[in-house]
Amino acid sequence: MLLKGKKILITGVANDWSMAWAIAKRAHEEGAEIAMPYAMPNLEKRVRPLAESINADFVQECNVQNDEQMDALFNAIQEKWGRLDGMLHAIAFSDKNELTGRYADTTRDNFKNTMDISVYSLVDLTRRASKLMTDGGSIVALTYFGGEKSVPNYNVMGVAKSALDSSVRYLAADLGKDKIRVNAISAGPILTLASSGVGGIKSMLRLNAETTPLRRNMTLDDVSGAAVYLFSNLSSAVTGEVHHVDCGYSTTGMMPNEMKDILLKALDEEAK
Ligand code: NAD
């Protein structure tokens, strides 16, 4: 019961594949009370039954681009709970037509929209949540390695993740004196609604599983365990961090020898 009595707002649940759902469920198992809004009306039928299964509250529409819905969510939390101890940011969006091909072809409209939904939302949610974190708190965002190095097809979402990682550090500096910690989990790739929009995700998952130091892909259990640690008092001196939960992928500079051999052999065969 690492999160006993904690009140945690979980954003970004779209369905039972969502990383946010895995984290909500695990946090509930660890004793937390969960607030679980959804982004748009057509998600309610998927999110409501999930929320009911863990007695989550505040199952209401909250699109981060809609100030009235944001006001309504935080007013409701203020009225009913009066405080927050944690908040998960698990929100990203970009036009899928621009998550393939060249980053150089990103349009201004999609650049702005991607940044607004995927990055500014962390700033806005943090400002609102921190006002309710009267006894300190922990804010966790989900990010990806494509913000540190270029990854094929990740394009503008990679640029957004760089800005998200940086926002984590600036928000941690702002809020530390209020005993509010802000960290990100850099999760390895996993198939979800959001990641299915990234071109070539299935081949990326296959290759990733063969090339990480642990020779497997990250699981929902891996990411939810790390989130419980960051929401809990076990991580009480950790803030401003991007914590990689990626089976070690980000620590390597080149694929393992056995994969290199397989690829070189395939190239030789093709050249014959
Ligand atoms: P997901 O599709 O389940 O979650 C993305 C969520 O963003 C959805 O719930 C969607 O409703 C929400 N969202 C989009 N636009 C919104 C808006 N305007 N207002 C409010 N919510 C909005 O997919 P996921 O992969 O679980 O993504 C969660 C987070 O994890 C994202 O930030 C994603 O970039 C990040 N991430 C994903 C992977 C991966 O491989 N799946 C890896 C690392 C990081």
In words, what does this structure look like?
This protein has 272 residues and is of the alpha/beta class. It has helices spanning 19-29, 44-53, 67-80, 108-132, 155-175, 201-211, 220-231, 257-271; strands at 7-10, 33-35, 86-89, 137-143, 180-187, 242-245. The chain has a 6-stranded parallel beta sheet with strand order 2-1-3-4-5-6, sandwiched between helices. β3, α4 (108-132) and β4 (137-143) form a beta-alpha-beta unit. α1 packs across α7 and α4 runs parallel beside α5 (155-175). The longest helix is centred in the middle third of the chain and has 25 residues, at 108-132. It is globular and about 70 Å long. The N and C termini lie far apart (60 Å). The model has no long low-confidence stretch (mean pLDDT 97). Bound molecules: nicotinamide-adenine-dinucleotide (NAD).
Biggest sheet strand order reads 2-1-3-4-5-6
Strands, count? 6
Question: What is the succession of H and E elements?
Answer: EHEHHEHEHEHHEH
Structural class: alpha/beta
Low-confidence stretches: none
Biggest sheet overview: 6 strands, parallel
Hetero compounds: nicotinamide-adenine-dinucleotide
Helix fraction bin: 40-55%
Principal-axis shape equals globular
Radius of gyration: 19 Å
Report the total helices.
Answer: 8
Give the end-to-end Cα distance, rounded to a whole number of Å: 60 Å
The chain-level mean pLDDT equals: 97
> Approximately how much beta-strand content do the residues carry?
5-15%
